[in-house]
Write a sequence for this structure.
């Protein structure tokens, strides 16, 4: 007897892909985003800064990446970036996403960018479905998880904006696929692929530099460097996996004489998080606080935050909660009231899921470590859970230093936590069956 492929049979990916495409175009046309793509693509000042870096790269450095401020209203040019005395977008925008969108724009205009982002969104959805099918082994959970992704209007709308969230979501989906399918690779190949994806994430959103550094300090060093004779081919592959990051460091060194990936982390900490804490403590608006902290060094900033630790912690936790529960900044309630409240309701569902599932994830991890660490199957499950958990927590915890961004800050972590929670429920079920069978 032939083994049946997939939950729906041989053609389930075609069915799911077609359903995703139908839902995407129905919502996009109904909300008017396809019709207004020229107005939306570079609507955000962040989008224009990405475009400026991309144009500078494509012109081999002859174009001035500071010119993006010419397209922004005066209030935009007096934001936290230009407040540092520099409006050079290369200081805070790594090269990878700018290069993709400017190349797509050169080939097909704003529609070229949209096609790339639509394909990334669709690939993320189909990949997520395939992972859910493998992890859950349950049709209901698989379709619920796929809906939690595909039903997110903000992510669909962001395909019409030149912002990094869609690309980041796709890269995190690929990372989740590597983790779920770890047994399909040799140990060395698995970690090289993870390093390469983490490198691409780092040069898309520099916060993932933490993920890259921790990954490099884990298995790869032991695998590649602690042999009696290091394999030259493995060392070459490691440098290739790190090449996106090395290229970005080269840009920062050549243009700003800085040995770093980006200054976005310190700028966000100073002009968002610390400014909000300073404003709360000193009784002033965030705008006034930003002017006041401009002369502070990062050492001064951290000293101030530690000195006012109670307020700092309160605002940090408040920002994390707000970034999950908040509205979408890309849906105008005056034009699309139902969609606006739908996304607020969906974000509330996400929040409730985190409150319920994260404790279950931690409890399961402890159970597996204490009782089942000698069992190969559950040891592999534990690895998968921890490998998914860390980048999700990284996205979640670093969101506490920014605000007023709507729901797009934590949005890219969708594939990570959907797979993580599904894997957790599936493992609890396996433990239940194991205990039932031994009775």
């Amino acid at each position: 007897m032939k083994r049946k492929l997939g939950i729906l049979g041989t053609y389930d990916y075609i069915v799911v892909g077609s359903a995703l495409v139908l839902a995407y175009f129905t919502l996009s046309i109904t909300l008017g985003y396809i019709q207004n793509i020229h107005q939306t693509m570079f609507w955000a000042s962040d989008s224009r800064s990405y475009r400026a870096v991309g144009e500078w790269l494509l012109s081999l450095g002859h174009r001035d990446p500071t010119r993006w401020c010419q397209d922004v209203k005066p209030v935009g040019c007096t934001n936290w970036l230009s407040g540092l005395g520099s409006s050079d977008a290369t200081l805070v925008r790594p090269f990878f996403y700018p290069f993709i969108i400017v190349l797509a724009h050169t080939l097909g205009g704003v529609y070229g960018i949209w096609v790339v982002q639509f394909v990334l969104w669709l690939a993320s959805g189909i990949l997520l479905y395939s992972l859910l099918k493998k992890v859950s082994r349950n049709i209901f959970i698989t379709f619920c998880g796929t809906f939690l992704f595909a039903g997110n209007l903000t992510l669909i709308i962001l395909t019409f904006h030149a912002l990094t969230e869609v690309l980041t979501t796709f890269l995190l989906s690929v990372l989740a696929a590597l983790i779920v399918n770890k047994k399909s690779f040799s140990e060395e190949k698995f970690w090289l692929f993870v390093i390469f994806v983490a490198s691409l994430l780092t040069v898309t959103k520099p916060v993932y530099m933490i993920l890259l550094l921790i990954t490099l300090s884990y298995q790869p060093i032991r695998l590649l460097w602690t042999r009696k004779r290091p394999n030259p081919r493995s060392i070459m592959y490691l440098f290739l996996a790190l090449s996106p990051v090395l290229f970005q460091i080269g840009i920062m060194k050549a243009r700003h004489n800085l040995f770093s990936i980006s200054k976005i982390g310190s700028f966000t900490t100073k002009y968002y998080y610390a400014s909000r804490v300073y404003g709360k403590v000193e009784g002033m608006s965030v705008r006034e606080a930003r002017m006041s902290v401009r002369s502070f060094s990062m050492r001064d900033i951290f000293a101030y935050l530690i000195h006012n630790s109670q307020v700092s912690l309160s605002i940090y936790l408040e920002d994390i909660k707000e970034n999950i529960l908040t509205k979408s900044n890309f849906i105008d309630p005056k034009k699309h009231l139902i969609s606006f409240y739908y996304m607020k309701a969906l974000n509330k569902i996400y929040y409730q899921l985190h409150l319920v599932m994260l404790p279950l994830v931690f409890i399961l991890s402890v159970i597996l470590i204490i009782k089942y660490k000698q069992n190969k199957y559950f040891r592999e499950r534990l690895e998968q859970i921890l490998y998914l958990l860390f980048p999700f927590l990284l996205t979640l915890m670093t969101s506490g230093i920014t605000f007023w961004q709507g729901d797009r800050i934590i949005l890219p972590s969708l594939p990570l936590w959907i797979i993580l929670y599904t894997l957790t429920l599936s493992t609890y079920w396996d433990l239940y069956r194991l205990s039932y069978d031994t009775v």
